[in-house]
Structures are given as C-alpha cells and as structure tokens.
Design a protein that fits this description.
mainly alpha, MetI-like fold, 74% helix
C-alpha cells in the first residue's frame, strides 16, 4: 500500500513539475494569441465599441459588400496567384540547378541569399530608383529599343511610364517579392533534395531512366512535403507584402496595388474596429481553406513516401 501511494505521489509530482514548466508558455499563448482571437470575434459581432450591441453577421455582410474590400481582395488574389507559383517553381528550379556541378555554385547561392540581409528601407529605395517614372528601367528599355530596333519605347506626353501608377503596377511588386523570397525557398528545396535516398536514384539510373524521368517520378514524390511547406510560406508572405507597397506608394496606392492589408490598415486608422475584425476573420477563413486544400492534395500525392 505504501509503495502504491509513493508511486502515485511520484507521478503527481512529475505532472506538477511538468505543468509548472509549461505554465509560462501556456499563459503566454492564452494571453497573446487565444484571448485576442476571441476579442476579434467579439468586435466583429457588435455594432460599435461604445454601445456594444450584438448585430451578429451584419458586419460581415457590410464588409463583403464594400467596394474597397472587394477591390483589395481581388488585387490580393491576383498577386498571390502570380507570385506564389513563381516563387515555388523558380526556387525549385534554382535548387535543382545548384545541385549540379557548376563552377559558380557558391557565388550563386550567396547571391540569392543576400536579399535576406538587406533592410526593407534599402530595398524600397532600390526599387524607387529602378521603377521611377524617370528611373533606370525606363532608361534601359528605351536604350534597348533604340539600339535593336525591335520595339519603340518613346515618352508619352514627354514622360515615360509611371510603373506604380499604370496597369502594370503589380509587376515591380512581384519582382520584389521574388527577389526577397527566392533565396530562402531555394535553401529549403536544396535541403530536401539532399535528403532523398541516393539508392533510389541509382536504381532509376541503372534501369535507364533519364534526368527528367528521375526528377518527375522519384524526386518530386519526396519533395511534396517541402513543396507544400514552401507554398504555404510563400502564400503567407504574399499577404504580408503590404509593408513594401506601403513604403513605395502610401496608404492609397493606385489600382492593383491596393491590398487587403491596406483596407484593414485604413479601417484601423478610421477606428472602424468592427470592419477590421470582420475582414480579418474572412481572410483567416479563406487562408485556412486554401491551406487545408493544399494539405489534402499533398496527402494524396505524397502518401506513398510518408514515414
């Protein structure tokens, strides 16, 4: 009996000590993540922070019918649909290229990783110099057009195209997004390629499989979890491009550069917490749906190599 009580007390003591070590993290998560999430839900269902009358889903209906929100959502979807696949495909291509025996492998790896060390303000300054109305890109295009005669790049009304106020205004931001994120994505893919069992590749080579066949049938199967992770990471980063766009164009950018975070930032500055909370919840639900779909696709495609 005494031995049983001692064993029970020892287990209770171990659980108490484990709980004591976990308590700070648990309290931090509750205070800074879980509780604010429920506060956001509460704000999304009241009329205003003063009267605090519940109107349930009226804020969601008002936000979904708002033209500014619709434009921001459309621009964000278009940007993510262009930038995320490019970020994944180009990073994978670079990883495969750097896996080969090429003479400048180390220099290329350093070149693609260097944007991670550059401050955002410096990146914005570089892009302003490149894509300004009288910037380097316009001057370069004009010089190439004049030298080759393949196309004419003339000034309109005495001025060149203003990239950030044209129909092509998402192009500089897509290039900025790729320049910033390709290096990190490339490193993730290179690590995944190095973890592929070499014996499977050797067997495929012995059986006469070419490089493309081996990549499609062997490497892609083992790369599917990494592709999923890189896609999710790039998708999240595409929703966070607001910082660079804000520094380049301000609170109300032209046309296609007005993103969802611009809308939410403007709602915050206008103290419209109900619209801000409703928009944040809508974006969260959409993100969960997209990520869930990606997990479903990956689980079906890569289930034979799990474990």
């Amino acid at each position: 009996m005494k031995a049983t009580l001692a064993k029970l007390n020892r287990k209770l003591g171990e659980k108490f000590h484990s709980g004591a070590f976990l308590a700070p993290s648990f309290i931090g998560v509750m205070a800074f993540f879980i509780a604010p999430f429920f506060v956001v839900i509460y704000y999304a269902m009241i009329d205003n922070p003063v009267r605090q009358n519940f109107i349930w889903f009226e804020n969601f209906q008002r936000v979904l019918g708002n033209q500014a929100f619709q434009a921001a959502a459309e621009n964000t979807v278009i940007f993510s649909a262009i930038a995320v696949p490019l970020a994944v495909a180009l990073a994978l291509g670079l990883a495969v290229l750097l896996e080969q025996k090429i003479p400048v492998k180390s220099q290329l790896r350093t070149f693609f990783l260097s944007p991670m060390m550059v401050p955002v303000a410096s990146i914005v300054l570089i892009w302003e110099v490149l894509f300004h109305q009288n910037g380097a890109i316009n001057d370069l295009l004009s010089s190439i057009g004049s030298a080759t005669g393949l196309f004419s790049y003339e000034r309109l009304d005495g001025q060149w195209i203003d990239w950030f106020r044209s129909d092509y205004n998402q192009l500089p931001i897509v290039l900025l997004f790729l320049w910033k994120n390709l290096g990190y994505n490339m490193i993730l893919f290179m690590a995944a390629l190095n973890n592929i069992p070499k014996d499977l590749i050797e067997v495929a080579q012995i059986e006469g499989g070419g490089a493309f066949y081996i990549f499609r049938t062997v490497k892609m199967r083992f790369l599917s979890p990494t592709i999923l992770f890189v896609t999710i990471l790039s998708l999240i980063n595409s929703f966070r491009v607001f910082r660079e766009v804000f520094l380049l164009t301000g609170r109300h950018p032209y046309g296609g550069l007005y993103m969802l975070q611009h809308y939410m930032n403007n709602m915050f500055e206008n103290l419209d917490y109900q619209s801000l909370a409703a928009a944040a919840i809508i974006m969260c639900i959409v993100m969960i749906g997209i990520i869930g779909l990606l997990f479903l696709i990956e689980s079906r495609y890569g289930k034979d190599v799990e474990g």
